[in-house]
C-alpha cells in the first residue's frame, strides 16, 4: 500500500520548521541534500527537478509562498501520490491559517503538527476532510491560544470519536444552521504555450467546482449540468454517487459541512485565449531590453498579472508602463495611466507587471524597459 516516509517543512533560507513521521531515517539527510541541489541549480541558472534522488530515495519537493515542503519515498511509490497528498495538505493549511507563511506556521506550530498527525497514519493518508479535521483539531483562534497558555490541548475533547462514528464518513451528526444555503464556485485555469506572435501552440483548461455547504441534517442534493460533454477526465469527491453520474450524467450527493472540492475536470475543448500577449527581448553581455504588449479579446479582464523571470544574474531593472489615462472616479486606476505598475523582486529575479483591469475598447497597455545583469 502506498505510503510516504515523512514530511519536512523548510523556511525560506532552508532551515527546518517542522519534521514529522520519521521512524528509520534522519531527516537532516534529505534537508542537506535538498539545500545542496538547490544551491547548485541556482548557480547553474536552471530549475530544480521536482523529484530528487538521495541515496536511492525519491525526494518529492514543492515550493509555495516561500516555504518548501519535502516528502521522501523509500518504497516504490508513484511520486504523484506524494504530490496529491501534499496539495490536499496545503489546501487544509490554507483553510486553517489563511496565508501559509513562515510566521503563521511558527505561530501555529502545534496546529500544523497535529494536522500532519491526523492526515497521515504511519505514512498512509487517513483523515483528509477539512470538516472532519475541524472536529478533531481546533482551528486557530484567540480562545484556543488562551487554552494553550492554560495548558489545555488543542484537540477537541468533547466528542473525539464523533467523526469516526457517523454513518456518513464525511458528514458528522446533528448539524444545524440558522440559514440553510449552499454556494458553488467554478474556478478554471488556462495553461497555454504561445509563440512570440501570439499564436497558440498548445492549451489546456483545468477546472474545479468548489462548494460551501451550510445545510442542516443530511440533505440529499441533485445537481444538473447543461452540457456534461464539456467535462473530461473528471475527479470526484467521495460523496458523489459515481454510478448515478455514469448512468444519468448528474451529480447526486450528500455534501460535507463547510467548504470542500466537489469536482475537478479538464475541459474537453479549449476556447480562444481571452487576451493576446506580444513579447520581445534582446539580450547582450551586460543585460538586455524587453517589451510587452497586452490586448484584451473580451470586454473586461480584472487583476491581470504578467510575471517574467529575467535570469539569476539580474541585479536591477528600469521599466515604463504605458496605457490610456482614465478619468478620476472610473473603476480601475482612477486618474492613473492604464498601463498598471511594474515591480522587480531581487531575490527571485522576477518582474511582475500588474494591471487592475484590461479593457477591450482602450489602447493596448505596454511595458518597455531594460535590465542589468
From TrEMBL:
What taxonomic ancestry is recorded? Answer: Eukaryota, Fungi, Dikarya, Basidiomycota, Agaricomycotina
Q: Which Pfam families match?
A: Adap_comp_sub (PF00928), Clat_adaptor_s (PF01217)
Family according to the record: Belongs to the adaptor complexes medium subunit family.
Q: Which organism is it from?
A: Cutaneotrichosporon oleaginosum
Q: Coiled-coil stretches, from where to where? A: none
Top-level division of the source organism's lineage: Eukaryota
Identification of the protein by name: Clathrin adaptor, mu subunit
Q: Any idea which UniProt keywords this protein has?
A: Membrane, Protein transport, Transport
Q: Kindly list the GO CC terms recorded for this protein.
A: clathrin adaptor complex; endomembrane system
The protein's matches in PANTHER family, at most eight in alphabetical order, are given as: AP COMPLEX SUBUNIT MU
Localization, UniProt: Endomembrane system
Among PROSITE patterns, the record links this protein to:
CLAT_ADAPTOR_M_2, MHD
Q: Where is this region: Disordered?
A: 317-343
List, for all copies, the residue spans of the domain called MHD.
179-373
Amino acid at each position: 500500500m502506498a505510503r510516504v516516509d515523512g514530511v519536512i517543512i523548510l523556511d525560506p533560507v532552508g532551515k527546518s520548521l517542522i519534521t514529522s513521521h520519521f521512524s528509520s531515517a534522519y531527516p537532516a539527510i534529505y534537508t542537506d541534500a535538498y539545500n545542496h541541489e538547490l544551491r547548485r541549480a541556482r548557480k547553474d541558472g536552471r530549475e530544480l527537478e521536482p523529484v530528487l534522488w538521495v541515496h536511492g530515495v525519491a525526494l518529492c519537493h514543492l515550493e509555495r509562498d516561500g516555504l518548501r515542503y519535502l516528502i521522501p519515498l523509500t518504497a516504490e511509490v508513484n511520486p504523484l501520490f506524494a504530490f496529491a497528498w501534499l496539495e490536499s495538505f496545503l489546501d487544509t493549511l490554507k483553510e486553517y491559517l489563511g496565508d501559509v507563511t513562515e510566521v503563521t506556521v511558527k505561530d501555529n506550530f502545534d496546529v500544523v503538527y497535529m494536522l500532519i498527525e491526523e492526515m497521515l497514519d504511519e505514512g498512509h493518508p487517513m483523515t483528509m476532510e477539512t470538516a472532519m479535521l475541524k472536529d478533531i483539531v481546533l482551528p486557530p483562534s484567540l480562545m484556543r491560544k488562551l487554552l494553550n497558555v492554560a495548558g489545555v490541548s488543542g484537540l477537541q475533547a468533547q466528542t473525539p470519536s464523533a467523526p469516526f462514528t457517523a454513518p456518513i464518513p464525511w458528514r458528522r451528526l446533528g448539524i444545524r444552521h440558522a440559514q440553510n444555503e449552499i454556494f458553488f464556485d467554478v474556478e478554471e485555469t488556462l495553461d497555454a504555450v504561445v509563440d512570440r506572435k501570439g499564436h497558440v501552440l498548445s492549451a489546456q483548461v483545468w477546472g474545479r467546482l468548489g462548494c460551501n455547504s451550510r445545510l442542516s441534517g443530511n440533505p440529499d442534493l441533485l445537481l444538473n449540468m447543461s452540457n456534461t460533454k464539456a467535462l473530461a477526465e473528471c475527479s470526484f469527491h467521495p460523496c458523489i454517487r459515481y454510478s448515478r453520474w455514469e448512468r444519468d450524467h448528474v451529480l447526486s450527493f450528500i455534501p460535507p459541512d463547510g467548504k470542500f472540492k466537489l469536482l475537478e475536470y479538464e475541459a474537453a475543448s479549449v476556447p480562444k485565449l481571452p487576451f493576446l500577449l506580444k513579447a520581445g527581448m534582446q539580450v547582450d553581455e551586460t543585460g538586455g531590453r524587453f517589451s510587452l504588449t497586452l490586448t484584451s479579446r473580451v470586454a473586461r479582464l480584472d487583476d491581470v498579472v504578467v510575471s517574467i523571470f529575467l535570469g539569476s544574474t539580474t541585479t536591477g531593472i528600469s521599466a515604463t508602463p504605458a496605457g490610456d489615462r482614465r478619468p478620476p472616479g472610473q473603476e480601475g486606476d482612477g486618474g492613473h495611466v492604464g498601463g498598471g505598475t511594474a515591480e522587480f523582486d531581487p531575490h527571485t529575479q522576477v518582474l511582475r507587471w500588474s494591471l487592475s483591469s484590461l479593457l477591450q475598447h482602450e489602447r493596448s497597455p505596454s511595458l518597455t524597459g531594460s535590465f542589468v545583469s
